[in-house]
Amino acid sequence: MKNLFFSFLKEFLFALGVCWLLLKLTDFFFHDRFIWLNSITMFWRVLLVSAIYSIIINWPWKKIRYRIGGIDTFISIQYGDILKINNNLVISTNNFFTTDPSLISSKSLLGQFISKYYAGDSSIITHKVQDALHSLPPGQTINVNIRNNISYPIGSVISFVGVENKHIFLMATTNIHYDKGNAIIHSEPSFLLKALDNLWKKVETTIDDQVLTMPPVGSGISHSFKRTSDAIFFIAQSFANRAKEKRPCSELKIYVRKNDLNFYEYQELRDGIRFLVK
Question: What is the three-class DSSP state of 137?
Fold first, then answer.
């Protein structure tokens, strides 16, 4: 809150100074024509304009977008429903690349994706995923009663063409292993780091100069991070590091739901991303 106050005050004084300078210059050269410039009404208008300018500049919910280290690559964070944005999309999944709706949470992005674009019928996406899995080294067959019973290494990434020729990237960030028939789910930041490293490599050979969208992976059901802002910063840091070596795509857009970030976290995130991309 303290940082926000000083940021607001800084921009307010800057705008006030610029407005005041322009008024004084105008008054100096055209004093007889613009006598009203020295009125109390004009003074209050200048204060109001300066305040509005500062609020716009410091508005905490506006889109965060920065160029990375002088490279022609951007990273942005904004509020919105990622499934309403028809773009190349990243979705996290488990080591089995499960596509069976009965085994996927309806609240997860993959569950919502199947429901929205395939009307809950997973047969099409299952076929696409199975074809894409051929690009990975052979996985380990697990003796469990599920449709996809082949486990792949954590961090594995596949892609397939979805709706309107947009690429869908699935990355294994959650590990499921079975103990006496019971599924035990585990995820941690190191899993996401492996997946992101493989994701950037896959992206740069798949979508070239296009935009990539993804949610704050690690902040949802997997609970790899306690705060959504931590997950976003983790992803942003990985992307920025990769982009400074080799550009994966033209822009990474991370979409977040407004109720997942509070006022202060968003402000903190904006300051952190600004420092990160230098």
Answer: coil
